[in-house]
Design brief:
single chain, mainly alpha
């Protein structure tokens, strides 16, 4: 902990910069890190939250444009006319807000839906609004959970809760990896 405090003293802006960039690597881990840092007093909670939400939003908004860019290819335009794709497009666009709020909390669904939103040419203003709102809700709930557990459990909880959250996240990632291996072996 002393090394972390020394680093924070030398580079007080560093934690905020990390939270801006971390969602590009792994969003859920960034949210846990920000909430953990906030509950442990490693930064100004409001600035930790803002840095995280800006990072989450930026890491998600570019995925929309990647989906839009896919439409510039001739094969993609033909693919978009298939019945199943048209059906999915109708479902996503009809309930865009609900879809984007739901996928924020369902691991493994964000990237495909964000790319599909761009591919289906969802209105960017609506897409960006819902991505930002869902990111704020997700981060807000996580921050609140970490702070409440920290206050209820005292100093020990502030140290243990982040470890529990990281363990759960790591377990989920291992589960997803094993499941994908099993699906590959079953398919081929």
């Amino acid at each position: 902990m002393d090394m972390m405090n020394e680093a924070l003293a030398a580079y007080p802006w560093g934690i905020y910069l990390c939270l801006l960039l971390a969602p590009f690597v792994q969003e859920d881990a960034a949210v846990i890190a920000a909430a953990s840092a906030s509950s442990m007093g490693l930064g100004v909670p409001v600035w930790l939250f803002v840095s995280l939400v800006v990072g989450l939003s930026a890491s998600d908004l570019w995925k929309y444009w990647a989906g839009r860019a896919a439409r510039t290819h001739h094969w993609a335009e033909r693919f978009s006319q298939w019945n199943g794709v048209q059906s999915a497009k109708g479902k996503v666009l009809k309930r865009l807000g609900h879809t984007l709020m739901a996928v924020r909390f369902i691991p493994g669904t964000r990237i495909p839906i964000y790319l599909a939103s761009g591919f289906f040419k969802a209105p960017f203003s609506s897409f960006s609004l819902w991505v930002i709102v869902s990111g704020m809700v997700y981060a807000g709930l996580t921050f609140a959970l970490f702070h409440v557990l920290g206050e209820v459990g005292g100093e020990k909880a502030k140290a243990i809760v982040p470890l529990i959250a990281i363990t759960i996240l790591a377990g989920f990632l291992v589960f997803q990896y094993v499941r994908s291996l099993m699906n590959k072996s079953a398919a081929g």
